[in-house]
Amino acid sequence: MKRPLALCGFSCLAASCFASLIGSWSAAAAAFCLLFGLGLLLLRRFRHTPVLVVCLLLCAAQFFAGFLRLQALSNWAYLDETDVQLTGVVLEDAEKSGTRYRCTVQVNSLTTEQEQITPKHLLMNLSISQPLHAGDKIDLSAWLYLPDDSGGFSVKSAAYAQNLALYAYASDFEPLTVTPGKASVFMTGRRVLVSSLERLLPKEEAALTSGVTFGQKDNISDEVTSSFRSVGASHLLVVSGIHMSV
User: Fold this and answer.
1) Strand partners, 105
2) Which of 139, 80, 73, 77 shows the shortest CA–CA distance to 110?
3) Bridging pattern class, strands 167-170 and 121-126
4) What is the Rg, in whole angstroms, of the alpha carbon atoms belonging to the chain?
5) Which of 41-45, 115-119, 218-222 has the lowest mean pLDDT?
6) Is the N or C terminus of the chain more exposed, i.e. has fewer CB atoms within 10 Å?
7) CA 147, CA 159: separation in Å to the nearest integer?
8) Whose CA is closest to 155, among 22, 146, 91?
9) Residues 206-242: pLDDT tens digits?
10) DSSP state of 183
11) Long-range CB contacts (within 8 A, 24+) of 146-152
12) What are the start-end ranges of the E strands in the chain?
């Protein structure tokens, strides 16, 4: 085995992605990988080169971790289609999606008629005159709902992979209180780099470069987006900064 570490890393990544798709069956997959890996140890051939055994044990750990996470997320199902008053902190700059903005929010408090488990993170959709920034504190009324797969795309699996069990629509008729907060060092650095691109490059080139390298896609024109979509290369516009870093 020339690249054992690469194989182990790829096995973990594949198991983590697959766990988000099979949901509660992750426990069975974990048991299968564990038993199969331990069974291979009985064979003399795999005792001297245990890379495959290690990969199977790592996959079992990933599947089991995915199962535990799913169980934790399922505790929030009681909040489906519920009106709430919540306060929280914006974890990332709000990204424009159609006519609205969306961002991940860390929940500080959530007021409902039922006192049960409160989710730690929500994906918030809201209409605002100016986008929110990472670190901002918000206080608003919202409607919570569970993501579903009715549109054909596996929205539930995508949300599960991001540790999100609930989405939220902010009320357009209730006041939104925003208190500017301090962003993390990484978000501040990202803003500085995006500003530098906007200053050094023409508008279209700066928007495209920011979108591909930093995920800042708000300024990419509809014409450029349509052109990428027409040639089947729209996936390039959703490449995140972590991919570029790797």
Assistant:
1) 90, 122
2) 139
3) parallel
4) 22
5) 115-119
6) C
7) 7
8) 146
9) 887 777 777 777 677 777 777 777 777 766 666 655 5
10) P
11) 146/77, 146/80
12) 82-90, 95-97, 100-111, 121-126, 137-145, 167-170, 177-179
Q: Which pLDDT tens digit goes with each residue over 148-203?
A: 755 445 566 667 667 787 889 888 888 888 888 777 777 777 778 888 888 888 88
pTM beyond 0.85: no
Q: Please provide residue 150's backbone torsions phi and psi, each rounded to the nearest 5 degrees.
A: -65, -20
DSSP conformation class of 132: -
Please, are residues 19 and 29 in contact by the beta-carbon 8 Å criterion?
yes
Nearest to 66 by CA among 99, 25, 97, 8: 25
Report whether 141 contacts 117 (CB < 8 A).
Answer: no
- Return d(Cα 149, Cα 127) in angstroms, integer: 24
Distance, CA of 123 to CA of 132 (rounded, Å): 13
Give dist(CA 94, CA 97) in Å, integer.
9
- At 59, list the tokens: 């996959």
- CB–CB of 169/113 below 8 Å? no
Contacting residues for 135 by C-beta, under 8 A, at least 6 apart: 89, 90, 180, 181, 182, 183, 184, 187
